[in-house]
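Retro notes
What went well: the complex prediction finally ran end to end.
Inputs used:
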Amino acid sequence: MINDDVIPRRGFSPSEFETRVERAQRIMQRHGLDAIFVTSPPNVRYFTGFDSQFWESPTRPWFVVVPLSGRPVAVIPEIGAPEMALTWMEDIRTWPAPVPEDDGVSLLKATLEGLPRRFGRIGAELGREMSLRMPVIDLFRLRDSLGSEIVDGSPAIWAMRMVKTDAEIAHIHHICTIASAAYAALPGQISIGESEREAVRKLRIDIARRGADATPFMPAISGPGGVPQIVCGPHDRILETGDILFIDTGSTFDGYFCDFDRNYAIGGICAEAARVHEALWLATEAGIAAAVPGATTDAVWQAMSRIIEDAGAIGNNVGRLGHGLGLQLTEPPSHRPGDGTVIVENMVLTIEPGMEYAPGKMIVHEENIAITADGPRLLTRRAPREMPVIR
Amino acid sequence: MINDDVIPRRGFSPSEFETRVERAQRIMQRHGLDAIFVTSPPNVRYFTGFDSQFWESPTRPWFVVVPLSGRPVAVIPEIGAPEMALTWMEDIRTWPAPVPEDDGVSLLKATLEGLPRRFGRIGAELGREMSLRMPVIDLFRLRDSLGSEIVDGSPAIWAMRMVKTDAEIAHIHHICTIASAAYAALPGQISIGESEREAVRKLRIDIARRGADATPFMPAISGPGGVPQIVCGPHDRILETGDILFIDTGSTFDGYFCDFDRNYAIGGICAEAARVHEALWLATEAGIAAAVPGATTDAVWQAMSRIIEDAGAIGNNVGRLGHGLGLQLTEPPSHRPGDGTVIVENMVLTIEPGMEYAPGKMIVHEENIAITADGPRLLTRRAPREMPVIR
């Protein structure tokens, strides 16, 4: 059992990275890949531990090559070498970026061609729920000159990242704990007559004070009895009696996200919204209970969906009822019909039932859980069964 | 002259977007493009005004099509429709994402094929300093079924975005003003014996309090007499007498970035670091003075480089001495030999001379300027000529 008060050590041990790479290599073997190369912040960080906010600058591409055997190789701009040298990585190859004429392409090609060739296939981030962080024209250039075929490596990469290590789960649990405490304290910080934007500013500052590194995601929206959408805002709208204020956050600790929301009744809650809130609270209970090793994401969806339908849902523009999370705010799998992923120990998932109960009036709940051999374990502090009131 | 105390109105008028689109269409005409389609947050925002932190979730692709004539079309997940409807966009087409089997590809294809065909070429974000935010396998699927050729639209898109409107410059100026004030106040907030991480936390909170929306980029590093790199950190390192603390920030207001750093002497500064600091202050002056309409980025680089070389630089792993900024932390052009971009009115640029003067001891200065018909105009409050001291 993890103590809520313990701050996990930042970073991960070299043996953690060795374990990740060994597991990745077993998966690459199954997928018939001689190597994968990754370019995106979460994938680079997963294999190297490299942490930077410099990803905000899209000027220079970065590459990490994970071969079928042996240690990963960093192929990166010179500007990043001093910091990469502080990680567990030993083989760091650099070029003096930016050089638009050849920004790492020939160095990456040489690195890939220096590896043993067995399957003749190299995996890259070409598929679902990830982006390739390099110019596509450079991918074409690489593909046209490389002896091996470049294929979609994302199914292999998701098989690696979808199941977390205990240390990763401790990180996610810590940021969930920070955000849970900040959410619980919010009614003491804001009042009727303040704006959505002001509420978000105060919550952002409080989450930073409590030890979060960053808050890349904090949409907020308010409306009478519910909200029309849950992914944008805040706006300057003033909170008025009868409103529901919805706030969601993906804040981070040492690279790992939480992703859960909370709802607040402004002044008080009407009977209809309270009824829907209760149904969603019960749907969340059902979703959590269904997320056991061996169940599918479809079954988790079904457990929630039944309750939501019975409560009179007229829609839900979210398209699913929860998903994975970790180094990204959202990751596979999705709780939706047809996803079919089998839930296994050490996955981290959101349980996110939501419904529109009248036009433009949506309420959405969300908790984060880790899957253990004994079943689901809450990482967030469970939302109160009665919606907290802001006065 | 913009008053430092005026907060620009959030968002932009419909006529501003009309102007952007008309200018984009003239550029598309020159580049021989029937349309461009964009997928990345800054490009979607540039044409629509759509603001969301939901970009943190990579699950669903979003598309905006800008045709050679007529208004742009949004092709987006249902979850985003209510908020997109609040922008100036009229034609919003949605699908119930996520649907991995066809996440918007056929809807995008139908939209593109509904446009008049003149050049048979569609521009996409395939090139420099931008990423395609959709699965590359879906780009392949689109390319293989589309009647028109998909080509690299990034030179056209950068021609559009590199020259700002007055309203965009007012946004950048505002976030520069906020960050300038927070940087100036920092010595009163931290002391010898605190950590880099603590300094960053205080500066982040102060910048939020002063009205920034977010701080996606705030690397910080300290070291005796200088720092080994400028893009990573903070770490838990304790600030000690003789250190230089380097902090950079890309904070945002209404989507627009500042990007400039400040240096602080811990306890006091040694003669050698003070000499280098003075040289870089003068190099910044020279870089600003050189950034006049009609000059090239090479000439701006040359003006700074001469002073840095004379001061005894042994290296600079940054690879350039400044760049564009706006909706991204870094944008084209680059002040580097061979870039060759001609500077024109309404560009916004960083002036960023830096040098390593002894192994592992680097000092880097940075200011942000807008180009006017009369020459460069500072958007940041000029760094003090003597390095501020933290005691």
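What we learned: Chain A touches chain B through 69 residues (CB under 8 Å).
What to try next: split runs per interface for comparison.
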